[in-house]
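Class, carefully examine what follows:
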Amino acid sequence: MESWLKENQPVFESLFEHNPNIVFLMDRDGVIIKANGNTEQILGYLKEDMNNRSFHSLLSEETVQHSLQAVQDACEGTPQTFKTAVQHKDGYRVDLDATAAPIKQGLDVTGIIVIGQDITANKRTEERIRHMAYYDDMTGLPNRSLFVNQLNEVISSAYPHHGFLAVFLIDIDRFKVVNDCFGHDYGDMLLLQLAERFSRCITPDDFLARTQGDEFALFFTGRSDTVSVTELAEQVMAVLEEPFTLDAFQLHITASIGIALLSDEELDAETLIKYADIALTHAKNKGKQTYQVFNTEMKSDSLQRLTLENDLRRALSHNELMLYYQPQMDIETGDIVGFEALIRWLHPVRGLVPPNEFIPYAEESGLIVPIGEWVMQEACRQNKQWQDEGFLFVPVSVNLSTRQFLQHNLRDQVSEVLQRTGLSASYLELEITESSTMDVDFAIGVLLELKALGVKISIDDFGTGYSSLSYLKRFPIDKLKIDQSFVRDIMTDPNDAAIVASIISMTRHMNLRVIAEGVETEDQLVFLRNNHCNEIQGYWFSPPVSTVKVEELMLRIQQVAAHQDEESGE
């Protein structure tokens, strides 16, 4: 070894010292005889400190076996390339792309030379890229790609042996409302807390991921039957019962869960996830805050739902949507004081489709926004036409969905509709649900903009949402509408009767008008009149009717009024 160094001294020294990488000259036992100057720059050790130190002592534990094997193979005369990692003097890991080459004198290998290129930065970059590719930035949980990869691996091992496997899709109910009302920073805070709570429910054998937006997924194999599936679903529901704290706000959050089980059918991850998604849709359609396990009947239901959504998109452009109008009556005078515009869908095959069958799909798909815009345009156009034809001059009420209300250009949309139709703003009433006003300051700003146009504002379904009296006093509104769920049982349920009476009293003290919807009997009407309710709406007076029926009704009113005028003039 020493004679080899002397013979090749000038060339060796030049290559050795000027090499930008770590270079170790080692004997056959793996003891370092000489190290170059870059050792200090890369590993923190003076080159003199490396003399007589074993290569083994520098290696990170997980790289020892294959690195020493590479050195041994080089000692036997075969050059080796290998990835390894060594410890820096300060204790952190340095990754190397290494080459070990034998030093020969004649046929004998007298030592080896190891050259190590520092690839730590590249390795960290690769790890970051991999982390970005397979992990969610926000929560640190695996993302959809890694979830699918891991699920496919588990399926391939579980299916041949009929192993138990369940996939959960967890969707946060009304998460978009939180984002829209409080902003994305609060939405992100909520996601972090959700990830932490869901992590409490799982074991080391389970796999939890955030797959998209407000959707989490998990699968588990370490449990034996469907009983454990329902237990886990209920655990997930239970960890959401405690309110979430976002700065000064406390929110109650619920989730819907779709579950798919690995069956005798050979499936891949995407199909199993699709089945869980179908079950999730059924859970949300059942009123949310519940879970559903996929079954084959859901496939046909899902196809029907998809067909309905596609048909609904076509309905907008093919003039299949129409409005019915339900009159609103002044209790004291019996006069019609307004109409509520209610959407209907005249399907070319299914006939008249009621709104409760298609509105949920419209909300889920986002079609509720263009549909809502069409309703406002058509209701204003029709009301203006009736006025031009000499019929009643009364407001038409239009329901605004939460998505519509949260649009930042809502004021401009309303203003444009009024300009296009020529309807005076005072003859348009916008009905806002309580849930739209969760962000009180935002809601007040929007309501003030709308009031500045001259339109009327009412709070719809009062008593079922989030409003408190302290907030309600700040809202620039004209009317409260008592939800029909309270009105329905006022003659049989003392609690509902007390609630309705209290709402009416409170509203009158705030100088607002109050209307009760869902009035179906004379007894209900008498109760509301005795408690000084201003207006009613419901089947006792009139169901929602077509424009033709409205015109017939208003024509009869005109004829009665004309007849009364004649009698008074005689």
About this structure: The chain has 21 helices and 21 strands. Residues 127 and 145 are 16 Å apart (CA to CA). Residues 321-550 form a domain with the TIM Barrel fold (CATH 3.20.20.450). The chain has a mean pLDDT of 87.
